[in-house]
């Protein structure tokens, strides 16, 4: 894996964690009856997520977002398992692998001129 691809994947992983944490803060407030104060770090985390996606090595925003989607899905399943304590089933894992294959195609596929 070349350095640029590795950095892009690291940005995507960090962005996924920031997005999931930010969204979970709102989930906790609304669905788990936590205090509205949970939204403050949630908003900060979502701002970090948006900023991180601008660091991805892509000429076009849509391509960067599309490639990020597969990483987000895999990270969401890790969150499900590690934070929420529900182990992903084989269908979750198969879906995540398909999405990550799509991410790889988008990031590493040859581009015509």
Automatic annotation (TrEMBL):
The primary site where this protein sits is membrane
Its subcellular locations are:
Cell membrane
UniProt keyword Glycoprotein, yes or no: no
InterPro entries reported for this sequence: EmrE-like, UPF0060
Record membrane topology: Multi-pass membrane protein
Tell me where the transmembrane regions lie.
7-30, 36-53, 65-82, 94-110
Kindly give the SUPFAM superfamilies that the UniProt entry links to this protein.
Multidrug resistance efflux transporter EmrE
* Pfam hit, one: UPF0060
The alphabetized UniProt keywords are: Cell membrane, Membrane, Transmembrane, Transmembrane helix
Q: Member of which family?
A: Belongs to the UPF0060 family.
HAMAP family documented for this protein: UPF0060 (MF_00010)
Q: What is this protein's record name?
A: YnfA family protein
Tell me which species this is from.
Azospirillum endophyticum
């Amino acid at each position: 894996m070349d350095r640029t691809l590795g950095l892009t994947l690291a940005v995507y992983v960090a962005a996924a964690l920031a997005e999931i944490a930010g969204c979970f803060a709102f989930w906790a407030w609304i669905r788990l009856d936590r205090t509205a104060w949970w939204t403050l770090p949630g908003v900060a985390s979502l701002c970090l997520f948006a900023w991180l996606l601008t660091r991805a090595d892509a000429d076009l925003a849509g391509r960067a977002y599309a490639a990020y989607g597969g990483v987000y899905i895999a990270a969401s399943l890790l969150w499900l398992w590690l934070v929420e304590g529900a182990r992903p089933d084989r269908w979750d894992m198969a879906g995540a692998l398909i999405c990550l294959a799509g991410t790889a195609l988008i990031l590493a596929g040859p581009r015509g001129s």
